Amino acid sequence: MAEIIIWLELVISKIPLPILEVWGRFAFLLGSMVAIFAFTGFTFRNGKQFRISREVWTWNLKSFYFFLITFVSIFISGYLGSSIVLIPGAQTLESLKDLSVFLCLNFFGYPALLAVPFAYGLSDLIEGVPPDFLWDWLPGYFINPSLFWISYQMIGKSPNFSKPRVWVYYLIFVFLFLILEPFLWGFLCSKQFGPEISYHTISSALIFTTGITWILAPLVTFLLFPFAKRIGYFWADIPFQVKEVSITEPRLVWNSAFKNIDPKDPMSEDRTGISLQLFIVAPFVCLVLILVGITSYVTLKNAEQSAYQMVEILHKQWSKNIRLQLFDLETNVENINSDPSILGQVLDASIVNTQGRVFLFDHNLSLISSLSNEPKSSRLLETLRVELRKQSSDMQFLETRLSFSVVTKKPLSRENWNAYVSRYDVSKTKETIYLVTLFPYSFYLNGVYTGNSESAMVFAWAILLSLVLAVLLAELVTRPILRFSSASKSLAKGDWDFPVGESMIAELRGLSDAFRFMSQELKSSFERVSESQRMVMETNTNLEKIVNDRTVALMESNRNLLDTIETKERILLDLHNTQNQLLLSEKLAALGQFAAGITHELNTPLGAIASSVRAMSEILKKDIANLPNFLVTLNKDQLDDFQALLMLSLSFGDRSSGLMSRAEKKERLAMLRDKNVEYPDEVLDHLTSIGVTHLDSKIFGILQKPGVHLILQNVVTLGSLYRLVYVVQSATEKASHVVNALKHYLYTDQSVSDSNSQKVNIPTELDSILTLYQAKIKKDVEIIKNYFTSDSCLADRDKLNQVWINLINNALQAMDYKGKIKISVTTESEFILTSIKDSGKGIDPEIQDKVFLPFFTTKKHGEGIGLGLDICKQIVEKMNGKIDFISGPSGTEFRVYIPKV
After folding, report:
1. According to its UniProt record, where is this protein mainly located (predicted)?
2. How far, in Å, CA of 116 to CA of 880, rounded?
3. Do 320 and 435 belong to one domain?
4. Which of 118, 257, 628, 875 is at 20 to 30 A from 679, Cα to Cα?
5. % residues pLDDT > 70 (the chain)
6. DSSP string covering 445-488
7. CA distance 396 to 399
8. Angle at 510 between CA 508 and CA 511, to 5 degrees
């Protein structure tokens, strides 16, 4: 192996040193760019197309395990590699930790990359590297794993060396690594060892050791890769562990454990983030790393400072002792420079430590004597002279301190020396002698370095134990919570007996008890709900059977009805036509209840018309023929009196009845006699006939005139004719109103739109509708009417009348046609409020929310089928109104709101 190292050094030495320096600096710059790209989470993959994307990791406990395994493997492999000697005294297999980095990066991915810099620094510290070197090499600890990251990008998704493609990518990576990494460290070490040694010796040694690593890497990967996949610790096979996202738009490029991903699909699955376990572990680990780092730094600095102060005291005491002996020698010898052997004896007598060196120089820095086994042409002596010449100005002082380094190539070493220069003036010869005492750093820092390495080992174990403790703590806290999560999912699937376990933490144990209690309660509730659902299903089945039976009976009834009225129209089977037929049945049912009353109400006005026409005919035949002759006999005053009395007679049709009681008639007869009216009995009868019951001064003025009874007689004739005409007119309107209400009630078509809206006076319509029920309400039913408004509403008159008919009919049936119905009409805001209140027993609270449903009825069989209120609601809502009700033990009040004009 030594021959290989010699050959590599020979080959590299053929390259001019300036070219190597330029290449080392280029490797440093390129490696820095790759490090920034790697540690910031960017990625590129060699696949069907080259693309730059961003890695998004799920930071869970498995990611922390990746970090932990990487840290431990680098620490152990670095320690073992430093103990494997390749070339005695020259080279160990230190790059064995590079093999760990290669494996961990390709198996674990990005978390392993984060662990490498910390593990590298701690490993070098354990191996005895001075802390000052660590600071100078800090960029390399980040750049070096970034070069390994290139292999992760090339073969990381499938590091299977049984495939030729993996070998091609691997050889490309090895080539890039060997032409960059050794010269990168040559650049980083040039400050400590100089460019020639760094690039010729260190770079060639790194090429040799890493070459051995890259020979072993495929074999080790081939053996360990199936094991990593089997235990589920290969990053690319863990579902949703990592995904690659385009940096230009939020779309998914690749997701771990999913091979077929459409790049055009948006990011629908977002399971990235920090898990609860890592959220607990991460602060603990960071705190331990920070405390260990600060403690180690402060301890080492204090140890170095103490050692440096000790060697300063030792320098002064040693120099002072030698100067005293030179002073004693000067008193006994004429010229102390004449015999170097005497000076050598003085220096030998002053020896303090075998590692110390003492040199005596004249003013030209020529060696006079020394306490050292160093030859006169040694590298230490030459380096000392160079440093003394640099400090020539400071050497004029009595004491001077300086430090310098001696670098050797074979074996490669860099020894730091601490020198103390004191000037001694010979009094007799007036010459100056420079006394130089030297101690190597290893003399007073060897223990510090040893303690440093041992402390690093202790810190490594402390960090490792703290990581393990953090994992155990996270498991202790989060495992019950994860069990709760699994139990919740099981509850959602119907598994009520999923075990949640116990926990040492009191709060989590209480949560477990509460969760189990909740599970039992949910189970009981679910069983009750299932039983309720079963009962509902059974009830629905029974209801469907009842509905089917009633539907069959209803259809049979409809067929019988159609057969009875000999209609040839066939009933359609859809719901719309069925409802129309049911509506007709509802109207006919209501009509059947008051048909006799309607017949009576029609016969009454028709009889009044017939009798009035006969009376009018008699009057026209007997009395009207003599009227012109009577009028001719009247003078102007009599004619005015005739007109005044005639006007009173004509207005009688719009007034209340003129009948008087016996007492009233006796009182008014006395008043006429007191006023000396002729024929008072006849006059009072005539006044009563024309409806004059209130006698004022104007009337008495007319009645006191002679012949007034003849005028009254003719006025009564004309007034009777007018009253008969008014009776005929009223009876005709009443009969016509009854017929029209009955016609619109029977033939209202709900499919026609509300195009017949007009101004409707609700009190007038209500009075007309009450005539349809006159036969039912004139005996045992008292109608109380309170009309407080004269405003009109905008509605369809015929359809609105159907609403009043249904509500009045319901009120009569609710009272069993005995009681009081209070009807009031008022104005409320923008509506005309019509209230119809009965004195029945009210509607039960259990069914109040069902009264407007189709086919719901509480009436007796034959009184209705439950469509009346549904029809009313539809009519009112089409008119932009609303209908509601208030019901109690004292009766039910239906309130209808119709927009006013």
Report:
1. membrane
2. 79
3. yes
4. 628
5. 69
6. HHHHHHHHHHHHHHHHHHHHHHHHHHHHHHHHHHHHHHHHHHHH
7. 8
8. 60
Number of H helices, E strands in the chain: 27, 19
Residue 269: CB atoms within 10 Å? 12
Burial 337-368 (b: 16+ CB within 10 A, else e): beeeeebeebbeebebeeebbbbbbeeebeeb
Same domain, 767 and 711: no
Looking at the 3D structure of the chain, how many domains does it have?
4
Residues 308 and 366 in one domain: yes
| Strands 51-59 and 399-408, bridge-based pairing | unpaired
pLDDT at residue 454 in the model: 63
pTM for the model stands at 0.46
Share the mean pLDDT of the chain. Answer: 75
Residues 415 and 355 in one domain: yes
Residue 238 burial (CB count, 10 A): 17
Roughly what angle, to the nearest 10 degrees, separates helices 138-155 and 110-126?
140
Q: ∠ CA(789), CA(793), CA(797), 5° rounding? A: 120
Q: How confident is the model over 669-683, as pLDDT tens digits?
A: 777 777 667 777 777
Same domain (yes/no): 686, 787: no
Provide the pLDDT for residue 862: 46
Collapsing DSSP to helix, strand or coil, 505 comes out as: coil
* Backbone dihedral angles phi then psi of residue 85, each to the nearest 5 degrees: -90, 120
Identify the three-state secondary structure at position 407: strand
Q: Which domain holds residue 109?
A: 1-248
- Decide if 684 is inside a domain: yes
Tokens at 375, concatenated: 């030859």
Q: How far apart are CA 137 and CA 131, in angstroms?
A: 10
CB within 8 A of 116, min separation 6: which ones?
Answer: 70, 74, 101, 104, 105, 141, 144, 145, 148
Please spell the DSSP secondary structure of 771-814, one letter per residue. Answer: GGGHHHHSSSEEEEEEE-----EEEEHHHHHHHHHHHHHHHHHH
Which whole-number Å values give the CA distances from 232 to 88, 253, 399, 525, 615, in the listed order? 42, 23, 68, 41, 117
Angle, CA of 140, 144 and 148, to the nearest 5°: 170
Decide if 384 contacts 370 (C-beta within 8 A). Answer: no
The conformation of residue 258, written as its DSSP 8-state character, comes to B
Task: Give 3-state DSSP helix, strand, coil % of the chain, rounded to 5.
Answer: 65, 15, 25
**Percent of the chain whose pLDDT exceeds 90:** 7
CA 625 remoteness from chain centre = 100
Q: What's the one-letter identity of residue 481?
A: I
863-882 residue pLDDT tens: 544 456 888 888 899 899 99
Task: Note whether 79 and 173 are same-domain residues.
Answer: yes
Which token pair is 228? 């990593």
C-beta separation of 813 from 863 below 8 A = yes
The edge-to-edge listing of strands for the beta sheet with 831-838 is 781-787, 819-828, 831-838, 891-899, 882-888
Write down the pLDDT at residue 594.
Answer: 53
**Residue 491 CB burial class (10 angstroms; 0-12, 13-18, ≥19):** middle
3-state secondary structure of 354: coil
